[in-house]
Structure formats: structure tokens, C-alpha cells
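Workshop exercise sheet. Pairs work together: one partner reads the sequence aloud, the other fills in the structure field after running the prediction. Swap roles for the next sheet.
Pair: D.N. / O.F.
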Amino acid sequence: MTTVGEKTSAGGEPGGGMGARTGVAAALTAGVVAATSGCGGGSDSSFADRSGADIMRAAATDMASVTSLHLVGDVTSGGRRIHVDLRSSTAGECQGSMQIDRGTAQIVSSSGQAWMKPDHAFWEQQSPAQAARVERLVGDRWVAIPLSSGLSKVCDLDHLLERLSPSDRQAAHSTVVGTTTVDGAEAVQVHGISEQGDTVSAWVATQNPHHVLELSVADGSSPGTITFSEFDVPLDVETPSADEVATIPGS
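Structure field:
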């Protein structure tokens, strides 16, 4: 199993570069642990009886064809708790929110552009010295985010799905724990160890398509749990109008 992304600092200056926002995106990506892995279409009652390697490879195949999904979860990275609730697509669209400790930012991305709308706590914890000034400039408006900031990788489902394929060695060393339900859907739990030595579990739908319904890492630098749902449901992204977007000098 592999870990998605790399851990970076969540700090940064809101008035200058996009350090804070890059850190948020990177920390989320770091916390989403890839433990997935060909089948598709219909009932498969014997799926849970397969080996861990077969289950992971089947999940990887079916997840590779997903065009959109809803991900919700909590990750701890750099000592900070990150909560994410995003709907994301392979077309680079997303809409939802991220919370770092007490601060929350709404996020939306579409057609090669991305914006965020942080609340007071977010600005204050990211850059206490400049929070008041930035809030006066921004008010209750959105802030455009350069795609180079790293947020595009969070909002681009292709980037996430690319990380969801285990190596042959990782798949071979996966073990089946048993069956349970995730949000009412029957799932088989597969246990393994990531390249970084973290303990990872994946819950894979026993019915076709074999989507990954939940991922969890119990230890390491970025422990947390992420659930996935609403596979291939079209996104209805609402982007801000020009007068709803603020410009921060120097950004």
C-alpha cells in the first residue's frame, strides 16, 4: 500500500505566496492512504473469499474507472487535525471544505481555476500578524488560488486515483480481515503495511464494482480515516462570479 502525496507544513503567508493553502492541500494528500487495488459489474458473493492480493487488484481496476466521488475524513498531519469534505472529479472539478484545527475554508475548482473562502479562524491561525489586514481586504469574498499551489492535485481526482495502485509486493503481503458494512454496503477489510511501514486498512465493496469505501492508517506521520461514496455522480459545481472574488495585493 502506498501513501498519497508528501507531508508539508500547513503554515504560510496569506498576503504573499500560497504557502498556507499549499500546506493544506499537501497535508490532506499526505493523509489519504492508498490501499486499493480487475472486476466489474453485478453480484459477486464469493469476492470476500479471495486473497488479499486479488481483492486489492480488483479494487484498483474498478477505482481506475471512477470519474467522480465524495470523500470525507479526518487526518492528522504535522500535529494538526485536518477534516476534509470534498466532491471531486477526474475533470479537475471539486467543491467542499477543509478544516485545519478550528479554521475552515470552502473550496471550489472548475475549468482550470480554483478559489477558496476561509473563515476568521482560518486566517487567524495561518498568519496571526496579517489576519486582520487580509480580512479587511477580502471580507466575505472568495480568493483565487493559483493551480500551482498544489490545490489542483486535491481537486483533480486523476491525481488521487493514480496513487491508489499498490505495488505487486504490497498486494502480495495483504491479508483479509473479514467482512463488515460501510454506510450500509457490504465490504471486505484488507490489512497491509505501507512502504513507510504504516499499518493500513482498506474496506472494499464486495459487490461489483469493487470500489474502495474506506481507507484508514493507524500509525505513522499522518494517521487518519477517509471514506468514499457517490461514485460517478455528476458534480454540479457553483463557481464565484467576478464580483465575489477579492484580490490580495502581492498575491
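Discussion prompt: Residues 92 and 156 are 4 Å apart (CA to CA). What would you look at next?
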